[in-house]
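Quick start: read one record
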Amino acid sequence: MAGLLYRLGRFAARRHWLVIITWIVLMGIAGLTYSLFAGTISSSITIPNTKTSQVQDQLADKFPSANGGNGTLVFETTDGKAFTDEQKADVGSFLKGLEDLDGVKGVRDGFTVQQQLDEQRQKITDGRQQITDGRAQITQQTAQLDAGKQQLQQAQQQLDQQKAQAQSAGAAAAAGSAAGAAAQAQLEQAQAQIDAQQQQITSGEQQIQAAEQKLDASEQQLEQGSDLLDLSKGIRFVSSNDSAAIGTVQFTTSTYEVPQATKQAISDRADDAKIDGVAVYVSNDIAQGVPSILGPGEIIGVVIAALVLLLMLRTVIGAAIPLVSAVLGVGVATLASLSFSSLVEFISVTPVLGVMLGLAVGIDYSLFILNRHRTQLKTGMGVHESIGLANGTSGNAVVFAGTTVIVALLALNITGIPFLGLMGTVGAVAVLFAILIATSFTPALLSLIGMRILRRKERDQIGSTGAIRVPNKPMSTWRAVVTLVAGVAVLGTIALPATQMRLGLPTGASESVESSQYKAYKALDDEFGAGQNGPLLVVADLPKAISKDDVTATEVTIGQALAKNDDVEAVLPIGASKARDIIAFQVKPSGGPDSVSTEDLVKDLRQQTVRTDDGRVTLGVAGNASANIDVSEKLANVLPLYLVVVVGLSLLILILVFRSFLVPITATAGFILSVLASFGGLTAIYQFGWLGSVFGVHDPAPILSFLPIIEIGILFGLAMDYQLFLVSGMREAYAHGASAKVAVQRGLHAGRAVVTAAAIIMISVFAGFIFSDSSTIKPIGFGLAFGVLIDAFVVRMLLIPAVMHLLGKSAWWIPKWLDRILPDVDVEGAKLERSHPGDGSGAQHGTDDQHGPRHGAHAAPVAPDGGGMHAEGHHGSHAADVAPDAGPHEGHTPTHRA
């Protein structure tokens, strides 16, 4: 690889215009493909096969009318007074106008819905009064019937007496007379009248009984309706003071699948709404837009990086080369990646992460090669030869370091989460282009600039770099112990908040206080309760279909069971499916969408057992809050797996490079400390709200659910970079005969300047994203900036040297059998350096042994013995003829390839 990069560097130096024009053409091609094939970018984060998505699929199949996501708009009077009739009409007209947008199934006007609920409650009251009046009438009619029955009984008694008297007067004698016959007829007529009246009374009793049964049935239905309204009394669509109202937009698909163009159209119409005295706010489920790739904060970060380059290199041209190279690499990588956005769903943070990484590593990688080239020019090496050698040595280290970052990012695909794998892939593409740019475009620019890469004073002193002191004494043991103990204690303390880290996705409360999303969130919280920001959709799958008459009773049974949960504030039935085997409810939790209580409620509802007369009811939970909880839970579950993979990969790579057991273990332990401390800082600031005013955290919330995984992958790659650039210097000094403890000091002395500059540049670029307008980007920028700060300046420059000192020569122990089978990984191109010692006499180019340690502080063009880390005279980097604890060789300066 070193030889290939050397030839690539020489080619770029000779044909610099060809290389430069080729990259510009590639930039143009990427821009063309982007304009032709780019699709829309989504602001929503989804994971397939979650419990929420399964419920949504069930609704789409069996209950289409209840399927589809909902978006919320909040209407609030600017003066805090109740809405006027004219304002209500304007709000209704505005919502009605949204129905013509693609993907919108319908709208619900909060005033209309609230009026319907109020009318239903009034109907319950009126119905109860009607039932009371009906029962009073029945009571009155019953009393009348009882009085009639009593009169009839008295008439019957009188008639019976008359019959008895007639019989006692001699019925036989009177039977033949006309008067007797007439009397008998009168008695029979009277009896017939009594029988007719008795029949009327019996009929009246039957009518009263039927009326009572009807009243009982009506009362039962009324009470069931009353129970349902009582369950939903905590849900309002117009605030109690009539100053705020909720408008709902129902989509044909889930909220996460709604095209960004539709959401943007709703937001634009809300911004342009001209309702006199009414403010229109769009909630986060609609207005969560795509963040800008570069904002003021990011530009400031790049400017700081430019100042660091200028201070380090003391030349404007030199400082511009890494910046130009990084920007070109980011441009090509971003446009090329986004060209596939019509085929693969990109979430909004994906290209931003690519830009973030591309800028940071692009600047650093170009800087490493440029710094090596400048050092070699100062010794008198020719421009083209210096470019080729710098590309084959430092460029080789850049390729190795970049490859570790790429592998860590591509490993995100093992999580099985599509959007996370795509983020890792796009980030890896950005790093790949940073490597390609650094090893081809940067050499071409260096050739074009020639000797002007050095200051005039430096050009005048070519070949006379002067003597530079290098450490010949190890650090004191007590200092190493104190540094190690204090460093671990400090990092452990910083990491403590991470033990309480919660994962989640951004809500409207995380947005800027001036944004529509934040105002909508706060208005809902203040006027309708925290749960209105994250209502849950609960779907009851019945054991079998029910009849129409049983729907209301079943809704009451299930609704009352749902309401028994501690954190349920209200339950609103949505309706039953056409087959009446599914019933849907809207559940309003007592807490917000990112609260612990809501998270627990979702779990409790899914585990709850509800039974009806037909058997057990299966409950499913969906909705935006539920989806966020599912995403966060699944990401938390794959985090340990990814951490194990990265840590294992770290150990293998470092064993291969440093041919040691303890060095990889200490490096990996340091990486874990860096990650945990970074998580602690994230939790303290973004979840606890500490120093919130400094970092713009006005409403603390759970940590972005995918941030820990992303940060582990990126910090792993960067930590290995710093480990390589520092510890390889220690290894080389040890291989050249310095004692193990002196080698630690020499390696640190050789690499600390360039690592410091590289780390500051990376921190500046990442920190620029902390002040982004996007609530998703802010914590990512902070996590990476703080992680690099901890890893570079605390772990790699303080703890690792202290541990290496305490380990002494045992740090480089490795079993002989393993030493024999491990391949010789020439990371820094030492073999290439031996075969290309320069293009002039040794004395002119700083290769004469008799001058002693006079090479540059960060990189020596050629090691005095003709080798680098893998000098032939020392049988490779892992073995030395000189005793490891022998006195330091004063004539051998440890070289650093970056």
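The longest strand covers residues 568-576.
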